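idk why but the lab printer keeps eating my pages so im just putting this in chat instead. protein + magnesium ion:
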Amino acid sequence: MSPIVEITGLSKTFSKRKAVDNVSLTIEQGEIFGLIGPNGAGKTTTMNMLVTLLTPDQGTIRVGGYLLSQSPREIRRLIGFMPDSFGVYGNMTVSEYLDFFGACYKIPPAQRKRLITDLLELVDLTHRQDDMVDKLSRGLKQRLALARVLIHDPELLVLDEPASGLDPRARVEIRALLQEIASLGKTILFSSHILSDVSELCSRLAIMEDGRIITVGALDQLDQAAANRRQLNIKLLGQAGLQPLKEYLENRPGVSNLRDQNGLAHSSRTSVEFEFQGDDQEILHLLQELIEQELPVIHFSVQDRNLEDVFMSTTQGIVS
Ligand SMILES: Nc1ncnc2c1ncn2[C@@H]1O[C@H](COP(=O)(O)OP(=O)(O)O)[C@@H](O)[C@H]1O
Ligand SMILES: [Mg+2]
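predcted complex ->
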């Protein structure tokens, strides 16, 4: 089966700022795919391009085999999109609200009634169907919005921050509902700025920052990658070895994000910190190499990290 979403080299710039920078992503049918990143990462911009609301500067998007630049209407039919802000038509009842959207999709009235009954049952709002929309709590409004995006029976749901602003109980309920919707055979792409929202739910996730996808994979793969990406700290006796050490590390595969920590010019110790991609055996090799280079290493420490640490350190400005 071909992937339901194929994004290649997608970019979008707003007045010089690259909101989305060369993003490529593939989503398979039936996946629950999480797009995770802090505010400003480019999640909404990516989704808006995917759902045809925003024109990309560069890149191609395919949904269900259709090329977005050629067949936007076909793609719109395949997608149910829930934006991050809830468009409120508060002055109608829950069932009128769904009926209105059903009419927008030209679903015949007789069929509509049945459909609305089913959808209300799915999102567990049957008992509130005659209540005014603006009387619903945020969590219930979110469930109503989910019913709304399902009304034309889309293949792919694109949900921008569906759990944001919800209390913990409502978050759990939304997660359960997304799982139920996925079990109906729908593919779900959703965004969040909170890692724990997605970690249990997603088949795969992508971490996005500053317009770019930093990493993509199943949670256990990312956990493994995170576990092999550790923080190392090396201290040297005196200043003399610092420059050769930095030069060595800069050219050493596996080393990234090298920083030296030397505030005091005449300190008797100098130290560097960096991230290292590799298992224990590779760390041992690195230490042996430094000794062979006759660098005056007096301290060598390794800090293990988990996925949450990687997420927190690769992304900033997280608001929960
Ligand atoms: N219409 C716009 N005009 C100008 N800048 C924008 C616009 N939309 C988004 N941006 C900028 O693009 C970047 C990515 O924003 P966005 O896609 O909303 O991120 P996220 O959804 O991950 O919080 C941010 O720096 C934001 O300020
Ligand atoms: Mg957003």
